[in-house]
Amino acid sequence: MSTSPTSTAPRMPDGSSRPKPILIGSFLAILAIFVWLFWAFLQRQFEWAIQEQADWGHTLVIPFISAWFVYLNRSKIFAEPFKPAWTGLLLILMGMAIYSVSALGPMMLKHHNIMGFGAGLTLIGLVLYFCGWRAMRWLWFPTLYLIVFGQTISDRFLEIVTYQLQDIAAAGAYYGLALIGYDVERSGNTLQIFHMGELVPVNIAEACSGMRMLVAFLALGVAMAYSGMSHLWQRVLLVILAVPTAVFVNILRVMTLGILSTRDSGFAAGDFHTMVGLLWLIPAFFVYLGIMWILKNLVLEDGDESEPQSEQPVEIQFDHRTRLAFTISVVVLIAAGISFQYAAVELDVHLRKDPVPPRHAIDSIPYMVGPWSSARSQEVRMDEAGVEQLGTDLYLTRRYVNEQDPDVPAMQLHLAYYTGHLDTIPHVPDRCLVAGGLTQEQAEPLNLDLGIEMDQWEIDPDHTLDGQSYRLAKVDRGSEESELVRLPVGSMQLRTTEFGDPEQPQLQVFAGYFFIANGRVTPQPSGVKMLAFKAQDKKAYFCKVQITAVSAKEMSLDEFVELASGFLELMIPEIMRVLPDWVEITSQLESESA
Question: DSSP for 119-171?
Answer without folding.
Answer: HHHHHHHHHHHHHHHHHHHHHHHHHHHHHHHSSPPPHHHHHHHHHHHHHHHHH
